[in-house]
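Example with several molecule types.
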Amino acid sequence: VEAMFSRAMEVEKGLNDKKKNEGHAKESDCYDDGSCTLAFPSISTADFQFDLDRASDIIVDTVANFLQKYDSIRLVLVDLSKKSRILSLVEEKAAKKSIDSRRFFTFVGDITQLHTKGGLQCSVIANAANWRLKPGGGGVNAAVYNAAGESLQHATKKCADALRPGTSVAVPLPSISPLHQREGVTHVIHVLGPNMNPMRPDYLNNDYTRGSKLLHEAYSSLFENFASIVR
Ligand code: AR6
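Resulting structure tokens for the full complex:
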């Protein structure tokens, strides 16, 4: 009986190991082809002038919660310069929280050229949008609309007319879009963050109670939208 029992245990262990390996294989496959990777910029911290220290706390918090909730998903925070203050703050805080660096890391580069210039595959990218969901302005929004071409405007219109601060909308990127063809981006998720710039709409006049709540909601909404695309 004992021998049978230990054999049964071995079989079970074998099965578990197999399952575990399959899990790892699935994970590394989807990381390699970018199919479960979201690249996102730091929402609200440039044109919208949100405080960087507070923003970095919110990024690390929402990322940690999200990674706990879902397996086989990878998040990448992108900024243009290796001197980016938001990237270093987030790196420091993510390390303190022992966030798995295979599942969340920072990356220096243009979010619209991650594959061709950076060798990083990401099927979904986030855009720091404006409430009208219109091209132009500066920063990521201008870059994303420029790289994606007109088909992003049409596709966006089919999904939403406008955004409220703290919300996001996921837009399937038509396969004719150069951003889809060149970079392998299948979806753009537009996110509207809180605004601390008096020259922009929905100015929060330094109200960081409201602003932090909205930035939290913006990231949660972005990540949940991403999870529903991957699933
Ligand atoms: N690739 C990666 N990161 C970038 C890129 C890029 N091409 N361009 C900028 N960043 P911002 P916001 C970084 O200003 O503060 C627009 O006009 C940048 O260094 O794009 O949410 C819209 O129309 C910063 O870390 O977004 C809105 O009206 C981050 O992306 C308004 O700006 C966000 O900077 C939104 O302002």
